[in-house]
Every structure is written in C-alpha cells, then in structure tokens.
# Entry
Amino acid sequence: GQQLNQSPQSMFIQEGEDVSMNCTSSSIFNTWLWYKQDPGEGPVLLIALYKAGELTSNGRLTAQFGITRKDSFLNISASIPSDVGIYFCAGQRAGNNRKLIWGLGTSLAVNP
Amino acid sequence: GAGVSQSPSNKVTEKGKDVELRCDPISGHTALYWYRQSLGQGLEFLIYFQGNSAPDKSGLPSDRFSAERTGGSVSTLTIQRTQQEDSAVYLCASSFGGALDTEAFFGQGTRLTVV
# Structure
C-alpha cells in the first residue's frame, strides 16, 4: 500500500542534541500528523498540522507543514532519554479519501 | 470510554486455530483502522472503516483475515487458521473522520503469538 517516505530510518544521538526528521510524498496532503510510540504502547499523537506553512510547537517539539503540501518535518530540541521511541508521520491526502497514510517510522535512541 | 480499548491485550494460540480481536473505539468516532505491527517495524495497514461507506480492505494480507464493524462502533478482526507469521501486535485506532479532524487515537494493541 501507499506509504510516506520518512527519514531517517533510525538515529543515535547524545542527550542534549537536537533531532530532525521528515516525511515526503509525491501527492499533496491536507493533513500531517506526528506520533510517538513507546515500547509496548500504541502510538500517541504529538502534533497535528492542517495548513500549508503551519509551524506548531509542543514543548521541545516543533513540526511544520511544508508549503508545497508534500512534506513535513519534526524537530526535537535538547533531547532527553525519555525521547527514545519510534516517531511516525501520517497524513491525509487531498481529495475525498480520508484514510491516513503512514511513514515507516524513525527509531530514536538517546545516549545519556 | 475515554480511549480506544482493545481486547485481549495478549493472545497465545495454536497454529491453525481461529482468533478474534476486539476494538472499542472512542464514542462518536466514525473512522476505525486496524494495523499490524511486527517488533520494531512500522504500521502495516489492514482495514479502514469510515461511517457507512464500504470498508477499505486493501491491506488485508489474505482471505484468512476479515473484520467487521457492528453498528458503527465495536469492531472485530478475525484471523482464521492462524499461521506463525501472523504473530504480531494488532493495533486499532479511531478518529472523528472529518476532513479537518483526522487525528487517530490508538488502543494499546493485542499481542498475538501463534505457536
């Protein structure tokens, strides 16, 4: 099935470093969502973006809806050990089909 | 309930047996998804229900997999004649399903082990 191109696939960083990950698509999207999944849990929504160019922050997290509507990025500033997990992007394509399309995830490891 | 509820949380079954996994979505949510996730992997889309529309079954891996959503609420994912490769975490998510309200909320998942 269709998936978003999410990168990087994994990251290993030192505590305190900033992190950036992104998702791209060949199609135009109306919505971009960023989720985090902790081990043994379901993904939890971090940030939702509904407008091209929108830049939204949630604590140390910042996400942007690309102006082309074909990409989005998530930044994490000053990483801490509890940021460890898998981060997923998801989006809803323009058009009548409201089914969410998902990236394959970015696995983040933080060395204290 | 306040969140998406899935049951059972864990299921161990013998190869060849049928299993049923249940999902209680958030009240009022018209959209419901089933995903499968292997350890450390991404979300594999299985099926999508949206209101009264015909479900999108394009992600079901074989005809051993089926899902129903009764009364627009509770959903059951059924796997017949389970195989070892069916072992995974099965996640359910629901959302309001509106054009500007697509945020999906996940349950804790059902960990299925086929032995």
In short: The interface with chain A takes residues 4, 31, 33, 40-43, 45, 48, 50, 56, 58-59, 91, 93, 95, 97-100, 102-109 of chain B (CB under 8 Å). DSSP finds no helices and ten strands in chain B. The radius of gyration of chain B is 13 Å.
